[in-house]
Specification:
Number of domains: 1
Structural class: alpha/beta
Bound molecules: zinc ion
Order of helices and strands: HEHEHEHHEHEHHEHEHHH
Radius of gyration: 19 Å
Distance between the termini: 63 Å
Largest sheet: 5 strands, parallel
Amino acid sequence: MRLAVFLLLGAIASGAGREVAITIDDLPRGGDGGPRDLSAVKSMTERLLKPFHDEKIPLIGFVNEGRKVDFRPDGLRQILDLWLDAGADLGNHSYSHLNINNVPLEQYTADITKGEPILRAALAARGKKIEFYRHPFLFTGPTAQIKQQMQEFLDKHGYRVAPVTLDDGDYEYAALYTKPEFKDRVRKEYVPYMESIVAAFENMSIQVVGQEIPQILLIHTSQMNADLMPDLLAMFRRRGYTFVSLDHALADPAYRLHDDYVGRGGFSWIHRWAVAKGIKTTPEPDPPSWVQKAYAAASQ
Ligand SMILES: [Zn+2]
């Protein structure tokens, strides 16, 4: 009995029993600077999805139907079908990734509706409906009134909000990965950076919620994530994580905590809950300065 207790405590200390839901944004292809023709996006997508399909790992992808590609609508449907074939769910990430801080609410909500038709048809063919909405930039409204009216729109249209707890700068690394001069360094440093993010939010969960929670990871469609996904998944497994669906993660009571944040920022829901509880959190690590500088130069 004493041995069993000892083993149990050891398992908790090493993080056994941790859970994470993986969510991937900006389908069909984010802004990683890689090729955007149908065959390139198809092969990137197939590589990205392979471990999820082969190992039956739950996954949800968030679609921007208006992403700049030259293969809409039929090609986009083919890409979405690849996701569904791999066992992934799909949600709406708006048509054109508008920034609610810069546009009127009516324009923003119209862009949500505009992002539905191809997604809805792809899901309907599998007997599914659109369930989740992911806010572009994780921006939920710059004023209390806009935030409330946006939430009312989502409620009225049957959407569940897909929050994020593990928020990171994967897109900065991804934009450098497609450039030969940075590729090797990104390959070496990306997963260790992601591990530092995961560790920071594990600690922050304890500080804000009182315990670790099922985490929700946000990353983006990119060649980098396609190539390095096995390493990223291995990092989570090393830390004692199993992979769960977004719906499973959201069943945890932590996700009923209040989000009292109002403003122009976009960040982890753990920071939002901290605002409601009046807890001051230490920010998670930024990508190192070489990544930030090279990313800023590359995005000009
Ligand atoms: Zn996005």
